[in-house]
Amino acid sequence: MQQASNIKIDVSSVEQASILRIKLLTYMMFFVFAMTSDAVGVIIPELISTYNLSLTQASAFHYVPMIFIAFSGLFLGYLADKWGRKATIITGLLIFSIACFLFSIGNSFFYFLSLLALIGIAVGLFKTGALALIGDISTSNKEHTSTMNTVEGFFGIGAMVGPAIVSYLLISGVSWKYLYICAGLLCVLLCLTAMKTNYPKTKKSADEKINLKSSLKIMKDPFAIGFSLAIALYVATEVAIYVWMPTLLAEYSGSLVWLATYALTIFFALRAGGRFLGVFLLKHFDWQPVMFWLSLAVFLCYLGTALIGVDAAVVLLPLSGLFMSMIYPTLNSKGISCFPKAKHGAVAGVILFFTAVSAAIAPLLMGIVSDLFGHVTYGFYLATFFAAALTLIATFNLIKNPTKEKILK
Predict the structure, then answer these.
(1) Torsion angle of alpha carbons 372, 378, 379, 384, nearest 10°?
(2) pTM of the prediction?
(3) I want to staple 95 with a disulfide (CB 3.0 to 4.6 A). Which of 122, 206, 219, 280 is the partner?
C-alpha cells in the first residue's frame, strides 16, 4: 500500500456538518456542469438554423469544451494538490460563472466557442478539486465509491434538467443562452458556499515537489493508464447513446413509436436512478463482479442492436442506461483510490483527460464510420466493439484482481 509522501489530510479537523456541506457542494457542482454539457444536443439544432452551420461545424459546440476539459485536467489537475482543494474549486467556479454570464453579451458562434473553451478549463479545475476532496473526506474505499456514485447520480439529474430547461425556453420563444445565465447564478451561490465551508486541513512537506512534471509522471503508472483506458471505453459507449441514438431511431416506425420518441429521456432517467441504486449494491457486493455483470449487460444491449437492428435498439439502447449507471463512478473511484491522497488531484486530472478526449473523439469516429459506409448503424457496430473491449477488461479485473494490494482501504 502506498503512503502519501508530501501531504497529510487531517479529516478530524472538519466537523460532520462541514463534511455534509462539502458533499452537497460537490453534488451541486456536478449537477450544474451536467446542466450545460448535456443540453448541447438540444442547442445544436438552433445553432444550425441561426448561423447556417454544417453538422461538422455545429458539433464543435460539443467537442470544444470536452477538449479543453481534457487538457485542463491533464495540465492543471495537479493544482488541486499544490494550491489545495478549496482554492482550486473556488477558482474553477469563478471562471465558470464569468464565462456563463458572458454568453449574454455576444452573438457570434466563434464567440460562444471561446466561452465554451473557458468553461472547459473551469470544469477541469473544479472537477479535479472536487474529486480529490471526496477522497479526503472518505474514511474507507467503500464510502469513497458510494459517494462517487451519488455524485454521478446528481450529474444524471442535471443531464435531464438542462435539456428540459432549454426545450422550455425555446418553446416559450426565449433564447437558449438563459440556460447559461441560470448556471452562472447557481455557480456564484456555490462559490460563496465554498468560501464559507471548512475544508480538511492539508499539511505539506518538502519531500516531494508538486508540479506539472510530477503530475505527468502519473501517466506512466500502469494502474492510472489501465483505469483511464477502461473509463475511455465506457465513455465511448455512453456518448454513442446521447449523440447518435436519436439519429438511429429516427427511422423507426414500429408499434413502440412513443418509446422511440422518449428514448433519450428514458436513458437519462435510468442512468440517473441507477447511480443511486449503485450506492446500495456496492455496499453489499464486491465491485469486481458488479462491474463485470454490468459491462456484460451493456455489451449485450449493443450486440442485440447490431444483430437485430432498430427494432431491438428502441428497447435495448435506452435500457443500457440502467447498466451503465454504476460503471463510470465506480471505475473513477477505484482508479483514484489506487494512489495516496496527496496525488488524488493529479490522478483525477489524468482520468478526466481520458474521459473528455473519449467524449470528443468517439462520436466523431462513429460519424466518420457511418458516413463511410452510408448508415448510422455502422457507427453502432463500432460502439459495440467499444462495449466488447470494456467487457474484456472487466473480465480480466474479475479473474486477476490486479488492484488487490493497490487500492487504499
Answers:
(1) -150
(2) 0.77
(3) 122
